[in-house]
Amino acid sequence: METSLVLQNLLTPPVLFFFLGVIAVVVGSDLEIPAPLPKLFSLYLLLAIGFKGGLELAHSGLGGQVLPTIAAAVAMSLAVPLYSFLALKLKFDSFNAAAIAATYGSISAVTFITAQSFLETQKITYDGFMVAALALMESPAIIVGLLLVKLAAPQQQQRPDAKGMRWGSVLNEAFLNSSVFLLVGSLVIGVLVSAYSPASAEKMLPFTDKLFYGALSFFLLDMGIVAAQRLNDLRRAGTFLIAFSVLMPLFNAVVGALIARGLQLSPGNGLLFVVLCASASYIAVPAAMRMTVPEANPSLYISSALGVTFPFNIIVGIPLYMALVNKLLPAAG
Amino acid sequence: METSLVLQNLLTPPVLFFFLGVIAVVVGSDLEIPAPLPKLFSLYLLLAIGFKGGLELAHSGLGGQVLPTIAAAVAMSLAVPLYSFLALKLKFDSFNAAAIAATYGSISAVTFITAQSFLETQKITYDGFMVAALALMESPAIIVGLLLVKLAAPQQQQRPDAKGMRWGSVLNEAFLNSSVFLLVGSLVIGVLVSAYSPASAEKMLPFTDKLFYGALSFFLLDMGIVAAQRLNDLRRAGTFLIAFSVLMPLFNAVVGALIARGLQLSPGNGLLFVVLCASASYIAVPAAMRMTVPEANPSLYISSALGVTFPFNIIVGIPLYMALVNKLLPAAG
Amino acid sequence: METSLVLQNLLTPPVLFFFLGVIAVVVGSDLEIPAPLPKLFSLYLLLAIGFKGGLELAHSGLGGQVLPTIAAAVAMSLAVPLYSFLALKLKFDSFNAAAIAATYGSISAVTFITAQSFLETQKITYDGFMVAALALMESPAIIVGLLLVKLAAPQQQQRPDAKGMRWGSVLNEAFLNSSVFLLVGSLVIGVLVSAYSPASAEKMLPFTDKLFYGALSFFLLDMGIVAAQRLNDLRRAGTFLIAFSVLMPLFNAVVGALIARGLQLSPGNGLLFVVLCASASYIAVPAAMRMTVPEANPSLYISSALGVTFPFNIIVGIPLYMALVNKLLPAAG
Amino acid sequence: MKRVDLILSERELDSVIKAIDAAGAPGYSVMKHVTGKGPHGSVSEAMDFSGLGANAHVIIFCEASILAKLREGIQPLLDYYGGVAYVSEAEPL
Amino acid sequence: MKRVDLILSERELDSVIKAIDAAGAPGYSVMKHVTGKGPHGSVSEAMDFSGLGANAHVIIFCEASILAKLREGIQPLLDYYGGVAYVSEAEPL
Amino acid sequence: MKRVDLILSERELDSVIKAIDAAGAPGYSVMKHVTGKGPHGSVSEAMDFSGLGANAHVIIFCEASILAKLREGIQPLLDYYGGVAYVSEAEPL
Ligand SMILES: Nc1ncnc2c1ncn2[C@@H]1O[C@H](COP(=O)(O)O)[C@@H](O)[C@H]1O
Ligand SMILES: Nc1ncnc2c1ncn2[C@@H]1O[C@H](COP(=O)(O)O)[C@@H](O)[C@H]1O
Ligand SMILES: Nc1ncnc2c1ncn2[C@@H]1O[C@H](COP(=O)(O)O)[C@@H](O)[C@H]1O
Ligand code: NA
Ligand code: NA
Ligand code: NA
Fold it and tell me: What is the mean pLDDT of residues B198-222?
């Protein structure tokens, strides 16, 4: 059954275009999507996912499983970097361990979106409030990462621009970085519009909804190119980091699935919850870490999150987690 | 009633995304939409509004109110800069006064589009020929602005490149600048296609029509960022210019509403006419003025049109003008 | 009848926006679509045409006329550069003759797409496997072009970077250049998705299908600008090249129509086949030639393909070839 | 030989290039999308969507003998519209 | 007069510009989207979509008297975060 | 120390960078999207959509001792494909 789910996931346009990007690099095609075009798609995807989530959140409200699920999600984004840090300290200094740990505590919106698309092609329902969980899991891990640096790093060299580690700017970076800001902002707009101007919400759908799947596929073509370019860096990073990039998501997925079971989530929401736990950030966190922990080597945390964990998740992770959820969650029978 | 209209306008995606852009700057988020992506949206909006207007113009023809309305629109684009200039001369030299005056004589296509969207969510009809009025109001004010400089400015220093003020190049800048050219060109294409190839007109609609509202919202996110960045400049520009940027649109709106009443326009067309009178250009005119009146300070005319008048119009202006139109125009009863 | 077909083609949005771009340059408007925005549209068009072709190819399979048609297409892409080279050697050195010859052996995807749109507005059907012919005709001409240089060019100066003419890199450039790679890749993805995940194929259509016509029109606006900018270069290139750029497509069209008759293609497929023979590449081949035959003057092969043949084909060529096909192909009666 | 660096608004780029050609320079290179600050204030790319553009950086490698003509054509433009022009030494590699 | 060329990550651009202003330079120009290689490895534009950015090239034409203050403000940033800074001679055209 | 400025077609960028690395330069910076004019005619960005690209500007700060090797690797490329290379003096800030 897992194999058939893997195949069903594999043979969808988003995943196939991701592969096409990887193949372009491997065979040496000069295919590239020049900057800032990928930024257009990443801004679009965040805006659309936030807006659609907001519309749905307005319908579901904050009752029932909503708040417990969100609380559990935030708790995971605090816990994951802590135990990841302990594992990473076996091989890395505190700066790099903290930066990689934060990356895995946070989430990948594109992995989440790909999981939603997977659910839709499987005709499994899920709820809009999961986007709120997504939005709220981006920032806490950034804060934890910086606390870890503060506490565990050797007495730091004085930063030449005080800015680096002042808490104001760290919180700013954590909560107001463009990706979190746009996602949360669009979510709030979705909620407001759904409540007060449903007719105008309708008019947004051709842009935010109909186009979404194609735009995701196009963006994943670029992600495939970028991820494959990272493969060289990875070889240098060594087997410990590669193993971590596969095993930590699997471990987080199991923890996540158990929590989802405890929360009695539906299979659809369960899968999304697991994917949030298992995914690693390569948008918000790297930008924040490079700003606030310049001592860490970006090629380590970007390559592991984008070069290994992301492809692993969208290719085999999502169907695997689905099978796990189907086993563990009662509603899935 | 005005309050409820204001709220109904406020809680639509275009206006909310504009706010989101403003908030991004105010709270210090690093959200930005890098060049040339905003240009993609501005080209798209001009092409789509022109094309759709052309389709509708082909249906309505040039009979009835069409020609008188267009004539009145052009007359306003000639009159507004003249009396604006007199007001502005109280505080500014002839170069700056003429450049700002031209800005207010011309129009803002995005304000017009936002007003159309407002009408649509209010289920109030309007006619395609208003886009022709929009197109024809862009250029005259540029010519008037330059005449004012010629007549009123102190004997000018000789321009090093004769080009600056030769009439050929001024007319070129006024009538062939990219925004006027694309709008008029798309309008003509819309008319031709509607008449000779209705099947192909149909095939354009998913692009020009369905996507429009979402693309407008995305563009307004950027406009919010850019407008908010102008706030600092404004403080330096002083209260006179800020007051002018709110009062002149209001005055023009009243004049416009009276003319609309005289023309017996429908409420929908009436609102669009008023919005044309009340809006100020921050696309065509600034580009033209910087080319042809380099002596004027761009931060004055850009900041007043984009930093004050534009937000004022799309946030409170449009519903306010709607209320005004409802009061003054008989058909609105 | 030809005149009416010409007019019906002329008055469609893609062709009219192409004209608008040409006019912008001729009258001196500053309208431009800054890089890399045109690249976004060209990537999109290749992805969409490939994907849609793949979906259709999966339905039609490889039986019947499919393989003979594809074989004939590839044969034409080998033959055209050979006889073009002989003609071009009358005026040009071997480097330039080979580069221009390769350009005419290969195809223009945008011309093909415009022909498809023409067929759709004419309500004439065509088959998805023609996209496979399109994809397979891009590369062979590049190889022939380089063989011609190898064989006919004077003993070459030693290239400073061996890379230039090594066969590995030539084949790489021919078969893996970004435009061929993306087209073929999307075609394969279309086939796979159609077979194994029809639900997800459905979800791509708003992006790849509905938007297509508008995006084509927007891209042709840019092509109009770029083609018109080439007119100056052309004057320098002389009447021989201009005549070649019109006569060679016409000759190829007649040859193509006879082959289509031999293959008993339907009128729709026949037109597409003829258009493939008659069109010249200004995307894949120029990029390949500049890399591999730097001795040739790019302004010659770009200007003739993009400045003459492309406008000729999309304005008068397509309807002319349609009339030819209607005359020669029995099914068209 | 000499290297000339010009930084000025994209708006005047066409006039400046005409002056460079007129001075007989053997070539030039242009980088657009330059932002910056000078006596006339700050220049950003924020208004790019409106066609206002930012600054351009022009580099010219030429013989010293061309400098006088270059100065003659370009200096009035910079004086009137703003921008900077500097010369330094440069030898072919 | 002097010409200063700085190449550094876009990330530190704001800090560097503050230092340039503080040093009293009469102006500066910035080119973004610069890629390259240095002691800290390669920098590309591939992660641009994530907000990571590439390098920036800053040019400052100024009097020699400003150099000391510039060095004081900028050198610590370059030492800590990476990047290069060079000075050459330049005369007004 | 020395500053080397190369301007050449983006097409040859990979070969040039290999030559720079081979010469042992401590680093380099690249700006793409450069347009211009030289003995081989004008270069614009109009064909960017086709993958043709425009020019690139490469800056290398290095010791004088590296120049000979750089010249050896790069000059043949410029001679064959076009482009310019100039050297000037530069001191660390
Ligand atoms: N001292 C300087 N060093 C480097 N660039 C400068 C300098 N002064 C002015 N610029 C550039 O030239 C542009 C136009 O200057 P201006 O119009 O004279 O203020 C500025 O926006 C800067 O990009
Ligand atoms: N020797 C050099 N010549 C030119 N650019 C350099 C040089 N060294 C470093 N750079 C540029 O400065 C950036 C930052 O350098 P770093 O962080 O010190 O490796 C590099 O990515 C290059 O763009
Ligand atoms: N004298 C020059 N000064 C500045 N840039 C030049 C000069 N000559 C050539 N270039 C640049 O080098 C590119 C290639 O030159 P080429 O292929 O030799 O014509 C041109 O497109 C220009 O960008
Ligand atoms: Na996670
Ligand atoms: Na107005
Ligand atoms: Na052909």
Answer: 94
Residues composing chain D: 93
Task: Respond yes or no on whether the N-terminal peptide bond of residue E76 is cis (omega within 30° of 0).
Answer: no
* F87 Rama sector, left if φ>0, alpha if ψ -120 to 50, beta otherwise: beta
- What are residue D22's phi and psi, to 5 degrees? -65, -30
- Prediction ipTM score: 0.95
CA distance A216 to C207: 10
Contact E49 A35 (CB under 8 A): yes
Q: Could you tell me the pLDDT band of residue B332, with boundaries at 50, 70 and 90?
A: very low
Instruction: Give the ligand at the shortest distance from the Cα of B104.
Output: 5
Q: What is the pLDDT of residue C157?
A: 60
CB distance A226 to A24 below 8 Å: no
What residues in B contact D51, CB-CB < 8 Å?
177-179, 283, 287
DSSP 8-state class, residue C305: I
pLDDT of residue C333: 41
Reported confidence tier of residue A154, pLDDT bands at 50, 70, 90 = low
Whether E50 sits inside 8 A of A283 (CB atoms) is yes
Cα A2 to its chain centre, rounded Å, is 23
Tokens of E93: 């055209």
Which residue on chain A is closest to C205 by alpha carbon?
A: A214
| pLDDT under 50: residue ranges of chain D | none
Q: Is the CB of E29 under 6 A from ligand 2?
A: no
pLDDT, mean of residues B272-276: 97
Q: What's the CA gap between C85 and C99, in Å, rounded?
A: 9
**How far apart (Å, rounded) are the C-alpha atoms in residues B114 and B179?**
17
CA distance B183 to B132: 9
Alpha carbons A227 and E49: distance in angstroms, whole number: 13
Decide: helix, strand or coil at residue A277.
helix
| AA letter at C56 | E
The residues near B209 (Cβ < 8 Å, ≥ 6 apart) are: B48, B52
Overall average pLDDT of the C206-220 stretch: 95
The better pLDDT of the pair F5, E51 is held by F5
